[in-house]
Specification:
By secondary structure, this protein is an alpha+beta fold. The chain contains three helices and five strands; from the N terminus they run αααβββββ. The protein has one domain. The longest helix is centred in the first third of the chain and has 18 residues, at 2-19.
């Protein structure tokens, strides 16, 4: 009887220690990041910004250069537009490279800045 009672109490204490005690109190501090506040632009405002970029000579030159390298573009439906700060518009256009991987080519305020991370 004592063994069973001891086993129940010990297993209860063990379960309490596993599930109720908080984890490591010493954790790395998180870096402050404003990127979580970025909201994609949608609707008519997005369409106006995308149409303006697609009709620009900068985009036409970049698209021609990428097509000559074997890239493919699937159209305007998957273009992402964000406004992270006042007066700054970032447009990401997905191109599929020759190996089938999607690469987002970024334009900031109409100027081509390349692929993030390269």
């Amino acid at each position: 009887m004592k063994k069973k009672l001891f086993a129940v109490l010990f297993s209860g204490a063990l379960a309490m220690g596993v599930f109720a005690v908080p984890g490591n109190a010493v954790q790395a501090a998180e870096e402050p990041c404003d990127c979580h506040d970025w909201v994609p632009i949608s609707g008519a405002d997005r369409n106006v910004k995308v149409a303006g970029l697609l009709s620009s000579q900068v985009f036409k030159d970049v698209k021609a250069n990428l097509w000559s390298k074997g890239y493919n573009w699937n159209g305007a439906h998957s273009i992402e537009v964000i406004n992270p700060f006042e007066g700054l518009v970032m447009i990401g256009i997905p191109f599929v490279n020759a190996s089938g991987e999607v690469e987002y080519h970024v334009f900031i305020n109409g100027a081509y800045v390349g692929v993030p991370g390269q």
